[in-house]
Amino acid sequence: MMRFRLHRIAPIAIALAAACSNSDVTKPDPSTIVSSNPVTMSVLGRGDFKPTRITGEVFVRGSTAYTTTWGNPASAASVFYIWDVSADVPKVVDSVRVDNSQTLGDVAVSDDGELLVVATEYSPGSIAIYSLANPRKPILISRFASNQTAFGVHTAEIGRVNGRLYAFLSVDPGSGIGAQLTIVDLSNPFVPQQVYSTQIGQPYVHDTFVRDGLLYLGLWNAGVAIWDIGGGSLGGTPAAPKEIGRLLTLNGHVHNIWWLKDPVTGITRYAFIGEESAGSVGSSSSGDIHVVDVSTMSAPKEVAYYTVAGAGTHNFSVDEPNGILYAAYYNGGVRALDVRGDLGTCTAAQKSTPVNGTNALCDLRKMGRELGIGLQNQGNAVYVWGVQYLGGLVYASDMLNGIWKLRAVSRP
User: Fold this and answer.
1) Sign of torsion over alpha carbons 322, 331, 302, 31
2) Hey, which bits of 286-323 come out as E strands?
3) Strand partners, 130
4) 215-274 confidence digits (pLDDT tens)
5) Could you give the CA distance from residue 327 to residue 329 in angstroms, rounded to a whole number?
6) Distance (Å, whole) CA 66 – CA 71
7) If residue 108 lies in a helix (H) or strand (E), which one and from where to where?
8) Nearest 10 degrees: CA dihedral of 402, 71, 113, 159?
9) Secondary element (H or E) of residue 126
10) Residue 5 and residue 3: Cα distance in Å, rounded?
């Protein structure tokens, strides 16, 4: 998602550089970086992507993938593409036109595989809801828009709360109105119902992450917030959320979140926060992964981080059974990190001070947790927006090159 606002952007926002300034950024001394000796991730194939469109997000279910397109000219309708990913080389099998939109950000499939939801920007913002009775032939069944979504839906994550399916929309600011978080009940996808909306974020609300009745909000320079929407002790619901806690992470620009529930160790104490700072589409990016201890959700605490010199992170996907986080790193390709166990305890030699920070934190690279690097030796530039782990494979959407299929890394 750029705010660069690239994937998210108000408009990249219109070129990453507009999202923030690098003038006050100090670079870490390269001599302090200790390599984890990561493996090179094996590339199985790249989609033969001929259309002259920029690839956005990716979502894969079974042998079918969906990719959106970003920054389409006003004179041309947006489209999303449908891919057959059963073989090593993904193949385009169809495309779907989405009228009255210039950019399609998120694409997501419901957990039962019945619905596909696509976010549209800019004005008039909306979400388009499709039936996946035939996964290769999505059929539009409704399109939700309201006064609160008018300036563009930047992201639209979907998830269940107490068995009911909802969409969580991050809406662009505009014309003196701040960004909005809007929640839509999708239990009847033919007639979606807005149940909640509020102005929030500074100046954006970006991604959300929902799990077990808790909603994590990426609020850019207003930090990351945790809401009870049906799973906490505060009595919150999707129609009446209650804030549990909030943290201003270092450097702000809170873009995306993943709250880890490790099924092997049972550890649920860490949330991974993506920082999307300045960059230029196709060539440069910046921003770290911040590791936040949420064992006390009313008082989250930043305990560790991961940085890549000359590159910044975008979206995450986590192989939770194996404890491996995959991060899209724009011009830095794909990074695979070991996130199992205690991430907040390390030796003094395994600590570094993050850019613009004053306190040393555990450095995941120095802790030997960098397992793999992908798409750095392809003979051409990459700019990876999204990743998804699925069944021993990693799919990466590349703004410049379409879709890649890679082999997942193994634990040491």
Assistant:
1) positive
2) 289-293, 301-306, 316-319
3) 116, 140
4) 999 999 999 999 999 999 999 999 999 999 999 999 999 999 999 999 999 999 999 999
5) 6
6) 17
7) strand 103-109
8) 120
9) strand 126-131
10) 2
Query: Alpha carbon of 361 to those of 290, 301, 367: distances in Å?
Result: 10, 11, 11
Length of the chain measured in residues: 412
Count of H-run helices and E-run strands, the chain: 0, 31
Pairing outcome for strands 153-161 and 139-144: unpaired
**How many CB atoms are closer than 10 A to CB 140?**
15
Structure token digits, residue 207: 């991604």
Lookup: tokens for 285: 């990016």
Phi, psi of 322 (to 5 degrees): -105, 0
Distance CA 81, CA 53 (A): 11
Cα separation, 332 vs 317, in Å, equals 16
Per-residue pLDDT tens digits for 325-359: 999 999 999 999 999 999 999 999 999 999 999 99
Q: Which H/E stretch holds residue 183?
A: strand 180-185
User: Counting Cβ atoms within 10 Å, is residue 280 exposed (0-12), middle (13-18) or buried (19+)?
Assistant: middle
Helix (H, G, I), strand (E, B) or coil at 207: coil
Residue given tokens 């409704």 in the structure block: 142
Provide φ and ψ at 28, rounded to 5°: -70, 150
- Interior angle at CA 329, CA 348 and CA 71, nearest 5: 150
Whether residue 116 contacts residue 61, with contact meaning beta carbons closer than 8 Å, is answered with no
CB atoms within 10 A of CB 237: 16
Q: Which residue carries 């009911």 as its tokens?
A: 164
Q: Can you tell me whether residue 112 is helix, strand or coil?
A: coil
pLDDT tens digit string along 370-395?
999 999 988 889 999 999 999 999 99
Distances (CA, A) of 244 to 191, 209, 275, 300: 31, 15, 22, 10
Contact 157, 144 (CB under 8 A): no
